Amino acid sequence: MSVQLTLNNRDLETLYFKSEKGKIVSNAECGPTPPGEVVIRSAFCNLHCIPCFAYSYSWPEKAKTNPNITKVNIDNLRIKFQYFLKNSHIPGNKDSYNWFRILGGEPFISERTLRAYIHFLKEISENESELFNNAILFQTNGVIIGKLDENELLGIFDIVKNKPFKIMVEISIKGSNPKEFGIITQTKEENAKTLYEWHIEACQKMEYVHSKVSNVDWTAVAGFGIGVTNLVAGNLNRKEYIKTFYHPETNKPFYHTECWDESFESLYELHTKKYKEKFGDKFPMFGIEDRYNWKFALCGLRNCKKYASTYFYDGYEVYIKKNGLRNEELENYISDIIKLYFFGDPSYYYTRLFK
Asked: SS3 helix, strand, coil % of the chain, rounded to 5?
C-alpha cells in the first residue's frame, strides 16, 4: 500500500517529548543495572490504548495539557543528546549503557517523525555510538511503517546502513484480530481493520528493509496480554493478580490461538522462525502490569475498568475484594497463553535481541 506524502526541511525540524525534571534525554533502569539505558520519551500517539502506562503524555487530550511536554527542533535534540553523552557518568563504572531506547507515546506518529528520527540517528558519531553499546531500540505501534510502501520505507532507513550501530524496531501488536485491536486501542470498527493490518504488515516490511540494510532489524511483541505477574511466574499461582482482556462471547483471553486471524498467525510463525535460536517457539508478550510488583501501573488498571470493563477481568477484585464472579473457564484458557508466549523482560529480551 503506497501513500503520497511530501516533505520539506521544516517538516523535519520539530518533535514533541516528555521531559523528566526538564530533561528529555536521561538514564533509566532498563536491562542490566547498572548501567541501565539512555532513554528518550516521545509524546503523543496515534492510538488510544486503554492500559497504556504513558497515557498522560500519549493520549492527545492528555498530552495537550501536560506541563512536561516539550517541543524541540531536530538541531536542539542533537545538542541535548550530545550534552548528555558527554557529561553523564555511566553507572557502575561501565564503558557504555546497555542501549539507547526511544519510546512513547509513539515515536513514529507520522512519516515526518519517522524521517526526523532516522535523520537524527544518521548524525550520531562512532564515538557516541560506543557509549550506548552500538544498540538502538525503537518502540512503536508500527501503524505508519505499515502504511508506507516497502521501498519508501527502505529509502528512509537506507541512510543509516553504514552506521556502526544496530537499530531494532520493536512493533507492539495490539490484539490477534481486528476486534481485539479495536477494543484495546479504542478505535472505531470502521477503522480498526485497516490500522490492525497496517501494524501487522509493518513486520513484513521491516523484514524487507532488514534484507537490504543489515543493521536495521525488527521484532514484534504482543502488546497487552495477561498480567505481568503470571507471565513472569509462568503459572497462575498468584490468582489474585490475574489481569486479562477477554471477549465475553468466546470467554477466551486476547491473543489465544482460537482468536488468531490469518494475519496474526502468519506473524507468529514468521517471528518464532526468525528468533527460534534466541527464544525457542514462544512469542514475546508485554502483560498488563499489576499492583503486585508494578504499583505505578494503577493508572492503567483504572483505565481498563473505566473504558473496557466489559472486556476486562481483574482477579484482584474477584479474589481480594470479592467483587464479581470468578471465571474459572477463562483462567484455564490463560494457561494456554503461558505455553505460547514469554514475558518481554528487558534484562532478558532486549539483551538477547542485541547479542
From this structure: 45, 20, 35
- Is 131 part of any domain? yes
Q: Which of 154, 160, 111 is nearest to 136 (CA)?
A: 160
Residue 40 burial by Cβ neighbours in a 10 Å radius (0-12, 13-18, 19+)? buried
Count of structural domains, the chain = 1
Task: Look up cell 503486585; give the residue.
Answer: 292
> Structural domain of residue 48, as residue ranges?
12-226+261-290+344-354
Instruction: Name the burial class of residue 89, with classes exposed (0-12), middle (13-18) and buried (19+) by CB atoms within 10 angstroms of its CB.
Output: exposed
Which three cell numbers, joined as nine digits, stand for 327? 471465571
Q: What is the pLDDT of residues 9-32, one digit of tens each?
A: 444 568 999 998 889 999 999 999
Which residue from 19, 117, 11, 14 is spatially nearest to 70, judged by alpha carbons?
Answer: 19
| Of 280, 1, 343, 45, residue with least CA distance to 153 | 1
Alpha carbons within 13 A on the beta-carbon side of 166: 16
CB 49 within 8 Å of CB 184: yes
Residues of the chain where predicted confidence (pLDDT) is lower than 50: 1-11
pLDDT at 13: 67
Q: List CB contacts of 90: < 8 A, sequence separation 6 or more.
A: 34, 35, 96, 97, 131
Q: At 171, list the grid cell.
A: 512493533
Instruction: Classify burial at 179, counting beta carbons within 10 Å of its beta carbon; exposed 0-12, middle 13-18, buried 19 or more.
Output: buried
Q: What is the CATH number of the domain that holds 155?
A: 3.20.20
305 occurs within a structural domain: no
Is residue 239 situated within a structural domain? no
CA distances from 24 to 40, 74, 114, 192 (A): 6, 13, 18, 32
Q: What is the pLDDT of residues 86-121, one digit of tens each?
A: 999 999 999 999 999 999 999 999 999 999 999 999
d(CA 97, CA 131) in angstroms, rounded, equals 6
Residue 309 falls inside a structural domain? no
pTM passes above 0.85: yes
Give CA separation, 298 vs 53, 276, 295, 302, 334, in Å: 9, 34, 6, 6, 22
CA 291/CA 339 separation, integer angstroms: 24
What's the CA gap between 96 and 103, in Å, rounded? Answer: 20
